[in-house]
Amino acid sequence: MWLLGTVAVVGLTGLGFAAGELVDRPSGRPRPPLAARPRTALVATPRQWLHDFSTDSLRRPALICTRLFSPAFAAVYEQDTGTTCGGYLGHSRVTPLKLSHILQDGSTAVLELGTDSRADWTIVLARQPGGWREIDFVAGTPAR
Predict the structure, then answer these.
(1) Which CA distances in Å does 118 have to 96, 97, 129, 132, 137?
(2) ∠ CA(8), CA(48), CA(83), 5° rounding?
(3) In which element (H, E) is residue 42 found?
(4) Cα–Cα distance between 45 and 73 in angstroms, integer?
(5) First-residue to last-residue Cα distance in the chain
(6) Which of 28, 43, 52, 74 has its Cα between 20 and 30 A from that of 60?
(7) CA dihedral sign, ordered 83, 84, 86, 87
(8) pLDDT tens across 85-127, in order?
(9) Which domains can be identified in the chain, with CATH numbers?
(10) What pLDDT, in 10s, does the model give residues 31-42?
(11) β-bridge pairing 98-105 and 108-115
C-alpha cells in the first residue's frame, strides 16, 4: 500500500511558454506541439517525460500508465489500489511541484521533485527501447 496517497501531479518549472509555443528553457529550442507528437511513442528525454506526465495527468491519466510507466510499475498501482492504474491517477489530487534535479547515468535517470527548496519525491526512469519510462517512485528526502 506504499503508493496510496503518494501520487502528485507535477507543475513544471523548467518549461515555459514563448509566443504560444512550448520552449525548453535550458536549450531554448522549441518543442513540438502536443498535437504533432505521437501520443503512443515513448518520450525521448527525462525532461520530456516530466512534461508529458504533468500534461497527461490532467487530460489523459490512463495514457501515463501505458506510455510513461513500465508495465511492471503500472501493475503496482493496480495491486496496491485495487483499481486500474489510470483510474487511480484520474482521482489523484494536484500538487504543484518543482524540479530540483535531473541526474542521469547511462540508461538510468533520477528526477528529484519537491515543494519550495527541498526534494520530497524521487522518480526513477529507465531508458527502454524507444524512450524513457518510470520504473520506481520514492517518497522522502533523497539520500545525497
Answers:
(1) 13, 10, 33, 25, 17
(2) 40
(3) none
(4) 19
(5) 26
(6) 28
(7) negative
(8) 888 888 877 667 788 889 999 999 999 988 766 668 899 999 9
(9) 15-139 (3.10.450)
(10) 555 454 455 689
(11) antiparallel
C-alpha span between 108 and 103 (Å, rounded)? 8
Nearest C-alpha neighbor of 89 from the set 15, 2, 1, 9: 9
Which amino acid is present at 11?
A: G
Give the global pTM: 0.69
| Residue matched to cell numbers 504533432 | 36
Helix (H) and strand (E) counts for the chain? 4, 6
Instruction: Output the CA–CA distances (angstroms, integers) from residue 40 to 35, 36, 62, 66, 122, in the order listed.
Output: 12, 12, 12, 8, 24
